[in-house]
From TrEMBL:
Record protein name field: Tyrosine recombinase XerD
PANTHER family documented for this protein: PHAGE INTEGRASE-RELATED (PTHR30349), TYROSINE RECOMBINASE XERC (PTHR30349:SF77)
One GO CC term on file: cytoplasm
Source lineage: Bacteria, Pseudomonadati, Pseudomonadota, Betaproteobacteria, Burkholderiales
InterPro entries cross-referenced by the UniProt entry: DNA_brk_join_enz (IPR011010), Integrase-like_cat_sf (IPR013762), Integrase_catalytic (IPR002104), Tyrosine_recombinase_XerCD (IPR050090)
Amino acid sequence: MYIDSLPCGTDRERERYWRARWLFTLLYLGGLRISEVSGNTMGRFFCRRDADGHGRWWLDVPGKGDRERLVPASAEMMVELGRYRRERGLPVLPAPHEDTPLVLPLGKSMKPLTRAALHTIVKGVFAGAAQKLRLRGDDHTARAAQLERASAHWLRHSAGSHMADGDVDLRLIRDNLGHASLTTTSLYLHPDDDQRHRETEEKHRIDW
């Protein structure tokens, strides 16, 4: 993965690496929109026990059209959150109602990044990956051109496609991504949240 090839020789390079890794984790594992990243905080992560007493982490996301949804925060996502927070000198787990933005600027600022700034980070990663792919030869030109056109929405779309390919129930995918419905006949389906969390964690991964 291109992000893992980013330089980490200086403090700033290391910070840039962990930020990119965390942002792509949110966009892909969480299926979040850019606006849902820029407008959210780490204090919206919370742990809730399921019927068997197991603690499951969730991210409360204010979504499109002022609708809120709960996104499963898989064990993999929580590990990445802890790593990113540790790099920023924060406790591994966020406190309830903590106002730290989900993704931070480089340096000491604790202000949220704008949607435009987040888009720039994402496009920069895709551009770097495309450049690296072109070095492999002409056989990779088409794939490199596709990467250069990729965006945060492409990651969200890929998340939905890969969950479907992994046999995650389409109703669960709908709820994870915050879509109003899959078809007009599924408007009133409400799958069990614990099942949604289990299936998402088992079948939708990055494996950094």
